[in-house]
Amino acid sequence: MAATRLHLASYLTGTAACHAMRSRLPASARSGRLADRDPPVHCHDFPEVFWLEAGAMVHVVNGTRQELAAGDVLLIRPNDVHGFIPLPPGGYTMLNVAFTAMTLERLRSMYFPSGPWLWTGGDLPTRRRLDRAGLDRLRGWGQRLTAGPTTVLAADGADRLTFDAFLLDLLRVLRDAEPAVAAAGEPGWLTAAVAGVAADPRLIAEGLPALRRLAGCTGAHLNRSLRRHRGQTAAECVLSLRLDHAARRLRSGDDDVLDIALSCGFTSLGYFYRRFAERFGAPPARWRRREREVVGG
Fold first, then answer.
1. How many domains does the chain fold into?
2. How far apart are CA 239 and CA 241, in angstroms?
3. Mean per-residue pLDDT, 5-9
C-alpha cells in the first residue's frame, strides 16, 4: 500500500512553532480481526512526537508491527512510514505534536551538540514506555498545548517559550525513563538481564558479573548476543547503564560527583569524567548546572 505524504505546510501557517492534536479512535468489532493486517500508512516532511494517553493500538512503522499501550512515546522522524490500528476494548487516545525540522536541529545544536540524541537511530524510531509519573507529566503538557481539538503555537514570544520548554522537558522525561524497548527479535533473557541491572543500583555498581549472572550464559555468548541485538559489547552495555544512572543522580540530587562515580562502580574519577563528557557533552558538574538551568531548577 502506497504511503500518503503529509506536509507541515498543511498544518502550520507562516512561522508557527508547532501543531498539537489529541485524537481518540474507538475500537470496532472488526478491530481485533484487522490487527494482523496492514493499516493505511503515511509519511511526512517533518518530525513529530506522539504518546498514548489511554488505550492500546497496533503501530505499524517501517514494516514492523508494535503493540503500544498508555505511556508509550515515539519520536517519529521525517520519512518514517507508519499507521495505526485501535485495539479493543476501548481503542486509544493519542496526543501528537508536529513541528519543523529546523526547530529540532536548533534544539540539538544548543543543548546536545555532542551528546546522545534521541531523534536518530536505525530502522525504527526511538520508543520509550513511561511510568505513571512520566505519563502524568506529559498529560499536563498536553493540556497546555491543546486548548481545543487542535492548537498552533506561534514561533515567538510566550508561545515559543512554552514549546521549547515542552521539548526540553520531554527529552528529560525520556532520558529518565527505563532503557529503550528491546530491539525486534531480541531474546527475552537478554532484555530481562539488562533491565534487571538497570533497575538496581547495587547491580549497576557490580557491573559485568551482575549482567552475566542475570543473563545465565557465558561471557562470550552474552557479548555475541549484545553485539547482534544492541550493537555493543557487554562492557559497553554496562558503561551505558552506569552513565545513565549517574546522570539521573546528578539531575535529581546534590550528591558529590566523586560519591556518585564510586557508587556507580567507577574506580577512576578521571575515567568517569572523560566517558561522561563523551556521552553527555559536558563534564558531570557542568552538565548538572546546565540541566538545572534548562528546566528552571
1. 2
2. 5
3. 92
